[in-house]
Amino acid sequence: MNTAPLNLFFSSLLTLATLMTSCSQAQDASTAAGAPAVVPFSINIPEADIADLRLRLSMTRFPDQISGTGWDYGTDTTYLHELIDYWQNDFDWREQERQLNEFDHFTTIVEGLQIHFIHQRSPHPNATPLLITHGWPGSFAEFRKIIGPLTNPEQYGGSAEDAFHVVAPSLPGFGFSEKPQDRGYNPERMAHILAALMQQLGYEKYGAQGGDWGAIINRILASRYGDRLIGLHSNFVLATPPADPQILASVPADELASREARQAYMANEVAYQQIQGTKPQTLGVGLNDSPAGLAAWIVEKFHGWSDIDRSLPNGLEEKFTKDEMLTNISLYWFNQAITSSARIYYENRNVAMTEPVGYVEVPTAGAIFPAEINLTPRLWAEEHYNIVRWTRMPQGGHFAAMEEPELLLTDIREFFRPLR
Questions:
Q1: Are the beta carbons of 119 and 22 closer than 8 angstroms?
Q2: What would the DSSP string read from start to end of 123-187?
Q3: What residue ranges define each of the domains in the chain, with the CATH number in brackets?
Q4: Are 397 and 329 in contact (CB under 8 A)?
Q5: Residues recognised as catalytic
Q6: Is 388 within 8 Å of 223 (Cβ atoms)?
Q7: What are the pLDDT digits (tens) for 70-104?
């Protein structure tokens, strides 16, 4: 008799029981300490909301487009027709929901807001806690290709010594987290919320990783709570030019050329920042009411900020499937989160931080993807961060965890390996 299937079955049950016990113990400890309870959460969008979405999609009024312009004026209407048709007729939200629910979701109250997060514990008890933080127009769903390899590395060709306990929150106003009803939720305030979340989960020491707003928030986290972080990994390193002219003159010519090229490209890609930073409420009226408008607004960012061949009609799908993009867009739609998420630009512009972000003493790694929306020379970054690792990637853009998960995963593992 072949007992391997039975052994595998009982092994799986044991692992599941261990994980459930760990989560239960963490929740009991949190509650015993007087902190808000950590409550299991499952994604379950009402069927009426799915039917409403399909009805709205069926009534889309597409704009005209000048022949042969493609993406020159914004989202290509031809591609948008294809995407909306797929969203209405072929996209299976329930399947995407099922896949997302394979992760362990929770909610808890942090500083008066209900915060949603994935808390995927590794079966290895000595795994390193890792906070991974998304940006806009991203979500926790960006990380679904890397959460498994981070928590169970040996199942993906890695080593058990590289295991992490992963915490992937939805930022306030994003995903399934509560929408702030007060002014002032700038990146600094969000950094305090993430620090409080990790403390409530019982993690005294942990690593942090992020891109876009996640990288900005994590930088503040590292500045304010440096004693708690073992390392900061960023695929979106921001830094101002150093004052020392000798340092400026020492930047390699190819790094400066890459930065200048990205700046020139992004000159026509920043209109969204202006409107979201000044009038997010006006924008939200249209995007919260029209799923086609929402899709056009977000998919344009995937097209413009990724390392793809834009000469191809469907070059976008070299890196992302329709299901991947529409799952992310659907999270904004079903949660009516586009307006609340866009407000981070307004708050960042209008709410001053309580203190400047100083030099980050925490060991820091920069994963530099060539099609990122901003490229910072290493010598500039070294004036602001304790840079111990700097990887110039061969390809990839802004949505690294979705676009180049293997490159990002390898860099995270190699950076944190000596810091554990």
A1: no
A2: SSTTPEEEEEE--TT--GGGGHHHHHHHHSGGGGT--GGG-EEEEEEPPTTSTTSPPP-SS---H
A3: 47-93+263-349 (no CATH), 104-262+355-419 (3.40.50.1820)
A4: no
A5: 212, 345, 398
A6: no
A7: 999 999 999 999 999 999 999 999 999 999 999 99
